[in-house]
C-alpha cells in the first residue's frame, strides 16, 4: 500500500471515547488504522477459559462493530508484538504509530523494543499518558525522589490536581479513519473458550454512601470498577469528572492505584522481592496443604473462606475481605505473600500488577507504607464487625450452619504468637 497511514495501537485503553492517543491519532491528518494484538507472550500463560480474555475479545468485537458505521474496524492479530509489527510494516506504509503508555515491567520492555523497531524503519512513534492522572515522575518529593508513603503522596497529588487534567479527549471518527474490513478473530481462533465467569458492568450509583458502607461486604455497594480500569473500558478522567466533591474516600482509592503504579515503576524489584529488604530473613512455612485449604476456602474461618469462594466462583472479592484473606495467609499460615499474589493474579478479574503487588506486600508487612508486622487481623473479630449477621458468609458458604463446615485449621492466638516470633527473628537476622 503506497498511501501513508497512521496506526493506533489498542492496549489497556479498550474504548472509543475519551482516549488520548486515539484522539491525537485521528487529528494527525493521516488515515488511522486501529490495531489490537492478542499477545501470545501473555495468552500462553493463561488457562484456556480465562474470563479476562473473553472480556477483552468481546470488548474489541464491540469496538470493531461500532467502527463499521465509519467503514472501518479493528485489525486484530494473534501473535507476538514483534511479529505483528513486522507484518504491519510489510503490508502498510506507516508514517506514525500512536499508543497510550503502560507502566508495568513487561509492557515497558515490549514498548522499548517495538519503538526501536519502528523508529529504525523511519516510523514516528508517539506515546501518551492516559490510564492515570499523574504518571511516574509527575508527583515527586521536593528532592526529586519518589514517594514511598501514601499520605504525603496523596497530599501532593491533590495539591497538583487541576480541572484541565481531566478534560475529555474527544475522538472524531467522521474523518481520518482508514477504510478497512476483515474477518474478526473468534475466541476459538485464539485457542480460548467462553467462561462461566463474567465481568460485571461498573456501578457508581452508591458513591454517596461509599465511605460509610464500603467495609461491609453483604451490602454489596462495590463499584465493580476494577476490571474496567484495568483494561481501560472506562476513562479515569471520566470517573473523576463525575464526582461532585463529596466522594473523597472513593477518590483516595483511585490515588492509591496511581501510588502503587509509580512504586512499581521506580522500584521494579517489588515484582519478585520484598520492598523492605529487612524482611528478607523471614522463614516462611509455605505448607502446601495449608495453602490449598486457603485457596479452596476451607480454613474454618468464615470470613476468609467466604472471600476465597467468592473469588473462585466470580473473579471478584470484596476489598475488606481481600485484606482479611491476605493477612490470614501471611500471618496465620506464614505463607510467602508471593504465593497469594500469584493466586490472586490468576483469579482476579481486576488483576493489576502494581495494585496486587502493593496490597499483598502491605498485608505481609514487607512493602512500602505497609501495616507493621505486629498488626495481625483477627478474622473472628473482623467477622463480628463487618458481617455480624453472617449474610455474606452464608451467601458463599452454604454448609456454614451444618456439620460439614470445618473447624478452624489454626488457633488464632497460637498463630498470632507464632507469626510475631517468626517475623521478629527474621528481622533481627
From TrEMBL:
Binds 1 FAD per subunit. FAD binds at residues 210, 250, 253-260. It comes from Cellulophaga fucicola. One of its GO terms (molecular function) is FAD binding. One of its GO terms (biological process) is response to stress. Coiled coil: none annotated. The record marks 284, 337, 360 as: Electron transfer via tryptophanyl radical. This is Deoxyribodipyrimidine photo-lyase.
